[in-house]
Specification:
single chain; 9 helices
Length: about 270
């Protein structure tokens, strides 16, 4: 099977336009307040800038820990040939690739940024992961796919970049069949207060400097550090999952709360 571009028919049970409308409102872009209608374009510009060195920068930013965090997520997803995965904001493909390598069923890798998906395609070909993998440029707030098509939906380090997070969670819920599970891996709130000074120094001094030297883009990495600080803490995000309709919601801190995995089931 060759790599393909997923092009489903539009479904009548898509989220209504009003569910994602943010006209006239504002939102965060790191520590800045910007028009909600502008954030998606600003985020897109960030990831177009960093796409060619995104994977290298992830290693440098996290000392390689992002690989361990993603392994924990994929284990929780419990890949099976009978399960289909929707990988939201999947970037350069780490979660999709690990899912397939562990024997998971068909996976649809989506991202709003075509440059990130182009990098994912290149990597997939290089790793000979061409079976069962499809791509789609898609906005997680308003997905053009029929409801109930997946047993698993995941998003890793993408939710904090989405303008209307509640809409994206509702869409993730809509994509699942009853009994299916949603998993979110995201930077979260430190549970060890003593680590905060060191963490802040790394985030706001080291990361922009590394971004300037390696990716020639300090500003994008300053935004990424800021976006972590304004993201909802663990309990708040768990409440948001419940509001989106998920049952059996729980979360697990990793590395002292630097990241957390949230999960919820569609009844």
């Amino acid at each position: 099977m060759e790599l393909s571009l997923y092009a489903p028919l539009m479904s009548d049970n898509r989220a209504p336009a009003s569910a994602t409308s943010t006209t006239g409102s504002t939102t965060d872009f790191g520590f800045r307040t910007v028009p909600a209608s502008a954030k998606a374009g600003m985020v897109r510009a960030v990831f177009e800038s960093v796409a060619p060195r995104y994977d290298l920068m992830n290693d440098l930013m996290s000392f390689g820990l992002h690989r361990a965090w993603k392994r924990v997520l994929v284990t929780a997803l419990a890949p099976s040939p009978r399960r289909r995965l929707l990988d939201l904001a999947g970037g350069t493909g780490d979660i999709s690739f690990a899912w397939l390598e562990r024997g998971g069923g068909p996976v649809l890798l989506t991202d709003v940024n075509a440059a990130m998906l182009a990098e994912a395609r290149r990597r997939a070909i290089g790793r000979a992961l061409v079976g069962g993998l499809s791509f789609a440029v898609a906005d997680a707030e308003r997905l053009p796919f029929p409801a109930g098509g997946f047993e698993r939906v995941s998003i890793a380090f993408g939710l904090r970049n989405i303008t209307d997070k509640g809409a994206a969670l509702a869409e993730a819920h809509r994509m699942l069949r009853p009994g299916g599970w949603f998993f979110c891996l995201e930077f979260s709130r430190l549970a060890v207060a003593a680590l905060a000074p060191l963490y802040d120094a790394w985030s706001f001094r080291a990361l922009p400097a590394i971004g300037r030297l390696v990716a020639h883009d300090a500003g994008s990495y300053r935004y990424l550090a800021e976006s972590i600080r304004v993201f909802p803490p663990q309990e708040t995000l768990a409440s948001m999952l419940r509001e989106a309709g998920f049952a059996r919601v729980s979360f697990r801190n990793l590395s002292g709360g630097i990241v957390a995995i949230h999960q919820g089931m569609r009844r």
